Structure formats: C-alpha cells, structure tokens
Amino acid sequence: MKYNEVKGANRIVKNSSYLISKPYELKNRWRNEFNNNNPICLELGMGRGEFIINMAKQNPKVNYIGLELNESQTATAVSKIGKQDIPNLRLICADAKDIDKMFGREIDTIYLTFSEPWPKPIDEKKRFTHINFLKLYDRVFKKDKHIILKTDNKVLFAYSLETMSSYWYEFKKVSMDLHNDERKIPNIMTDWEIKCNHDRKQIYYVDAIFKG
Ligand SMILES: C[S@@+](CC[C@H](N)C(=O)[O-])C[C@H]1O[C@@H](n2cnc3c(N)ncnc32)[C@H](O)[C@@H]1O
C-alpha cells in the first residue's frame, strides 16, 4: 500500500525522544528501558499510531511499543504525540520480520490492528498471521502467546482464525461486529476505523491466546 510521504520524515523520526533508534541493543533489556516490570505490549504496523498512543495514555501501568516500517507513517505518529509526556510508550521504525532481533522473551501481547491484508497469494507470507510470523512471535512472547487482532477485511480475518487455530491458539473472544457487539468490548478506534464505522463497515475482532 502507498502512504502519503511526510516531508522531513527522517529528521522528525530521528529527533523524537520516543524513537528507539537501535532496538537490537535493547534485546532482553526492555525492562531497564522502561524502568519497571510492567507488561510490555507490541503493535506491529502501528501506522500513524492512534491506537498505541491512546492505549499507552489509558493504561499507564502497561508499557507499549509501536513498530512501523514506513518512515512517513512513523513521523506522523511522532507528530501526533507532539509534546505529550507518555513515559510508557516507545516507537520503533523497522520491519516486523526482525522482531526476534529486538526482543527476547519479553512481550506479553501483540496487537495487529488493521494490518495490510496482502490479498494476492504471492504475498501470503507477508500477512502478520502467516504461520511463519506466528512462529516468529513464539520467540518474543514472555510466557503465554497473546494476540489481539482487529480488521475490516473479512478474508484476512478468516485466514487469521484458520492459521491461529491450526497453531493451537484458543479464542477468548471473537466478534464479527465489534462496534455493535452487546458485550461492549473495550476499543480504541484508529482514523481508518472511524471511517469504517462511518461507512457502517463491520469490524472483525479476535482475542487469541495460547497458554504456555
Ligand atoms: C493498513 S495500516 C494500519 C495502521 C494502524 N495499525 C491502524 O490501525 O491504523 C498497516 C501498516 O502496517 C505497516 N507495515 C506493513 N508491513 C510491515 C512490516 N513488515 N513491518 C512493520 N510495519 C509494516 C504499513 O507500513 C502500515 O503503516
């Protein structure tokens, strides 16, 4: 997918105190970075960061890391943070396929929000719920494997339920229509999700766990 280019993205990202420029150096040392023993949650493909920034603001006793490949998207997230002080938030601009080089067994939850669906069969391996990614996550989860996914893409959702269940994940909660679910599942909407909601598009949600 093409994203709007942000002028000076490299400088904006580099100068942000939220950005971890050498995440490999923090492998097995994230507790020191956050200076606490609180759980650590990671969003892969955070985009413009609305989800992870707001999660961090709402849950100060949990640490959040937003990882994003695209520098312009990361720069937009940095701009959204602006001058706010959010001590439990860090950003990484890198490829998700390298997370095992950045983290030891330190992650409690992985969030996949509106991940790119990669609809062509040739791109299947890029899907964040491809079996290779699920295997990769094993190397960074602390104990239980816990993935929370939401998407407006029915095909990606069905695919993800299939790959996760074949990899022994169990589903704690599944919703075929998150915004109208009577269980009132707590949710933070991204810009894209607000648009989906406006267009009355269904949002699919799964909270999946494999107890190690
Ligand atoms: C459709 S956007 C969703 C952004 C955000 N999670 C949201 O809900 O608004 C998907 C994001 O994943 C990022 N992405 C795709 N492949 C990636 C990878 N291998 N590593 C890190 N980020 C990736 C894209 O650059 C894009 O910003």
Question: Which class best fits the helix and strand makeup?
Answer: alpha/beta
> Tally the helices: what do you get?
8
Strand order, main sheet: write it out.
3-2-1-4-5-7-6
**CATH homology-level superfamily:** Vaccinia Virus protein VP39
- Distinct bound molecules: S-adenosylmethionine
| Beta-strand content | 15-25%
Number of strands: 7
pLDDT < 50 stretches: none
Structure description:
There is one protein chain. The chain is an alpha/beta fold. The protein has helices at 9-14, 30-34, 50-58, 71-81, 99-102, 131-138, 154-166, 191-198, and strands at 40-44, 63-68, 89-93, 109-113, 145-151, 170-175, 204-210. The chain starts with 8 loop residues before the first helix and ends with a strand. Bound molecules: S-adenosylmethionine (SAM). S-adenosylmethionine binds at residues 44-47, 51, 67-70, 73, 95-97, 113-116, 190, 192.
Key phrases:
212 residues, 8 helices, binds S-adenosylmethionine, 30% helix, alpha/beta, seven-stranded mixed beta sheet, 7 strands, Rossmann fold
Give a quick summary of the entry.
The protein has helices at 9-14, 30-34, 50-58, 71-81, 99-102, 131-138, 154-166, 191-198; strands spanning 40-44, 63-68, 89-93, 109-113, 145-151, 170-175, 204-210. With 212 residues, the chain is α/β, with parallel strands linked by helices. The model has no long low-confidence stretch (mean pLDDT 96).
Lay out the secondary structure.
Blueprint: H1 9-14, H2 30-34, E1 40-44, H3 50-58, E2 63-68, H4 71-81, E3 89-93, H5 99-102, E4 109-113, H6 131-138, E5 145-151, H7 154-166, E6 170-175, H8 191-198, E7 204-210
Parallel strand pairs: 1-2, 1-4, 2-3, 4-5
Antiparallel strand pairs: 5-7, 6-7
Bound molecules: S-adenosylmethionine.
